[in-house]
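Let us practice reading a record.
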Amino acid sequence: MKPLRIDIWSDIACPWCYIGKRHLEQALSGFGHDVAITWRSFELDPSAPKQPAPQPMVERLAAKYRTSVEVAQTRLDQVVAVGARDGLELRFDRMKPGNTFDAHRLLHLAHAAGAAKQDKLKERLFRAYMTDGQSIADRDVLAACARDVGLDPDEVLADPERFAAEVRGDEAIARELGITGVPFFVFGGRLAVSGAQPADVLRGALDRAWADGSPEQAFADGAACGPDGCD
């Protein structure tokens, strides 16, 4: 049988997408069938500047939700705790938000080299932004991440239009599907799961998508990030 196709819309600037990646990896452990994963582009803030904002993440979050810094910090601490249970070190105190369009273009370059290569780059980009506190809009950071997984970053970074249409194409499909928050998983082209659902929920979706050709359906929404913020 052909591998089960898994399409995932996500953004590097989304902590729930990093957590959702771990949950999918847990769900795939022992699945016993071949899968073909494609990471699709979704920009939470297409208008984000290339230069990272100087304001700390907790202050930006407080301003966005019109709440106190203390309340914002509590929300961040809750996400950090969830990530820690999955072995992730989410360092909101280090994060430098910025434009992710070029990162998505690099992910398309990686996909052209194979799904495994794209997955490695996705992981490397997440770690650079979420843990190491590197600016994901910085060309030198992007180039280093690409080289770390065996890619030539100049294939993309030297040409602003390289894979730009593919990024916009993914985002157009997201709009057609009504995707407003990420991560968003589509299994076998027919079964959708929204948000960083627990591994057992994702495993159930995997099993169902592999077993039959049931019509498209969606599970209840899980924790996710959208243009207006993260849960």
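A brief commentary: The chain has one domain: 4-230.
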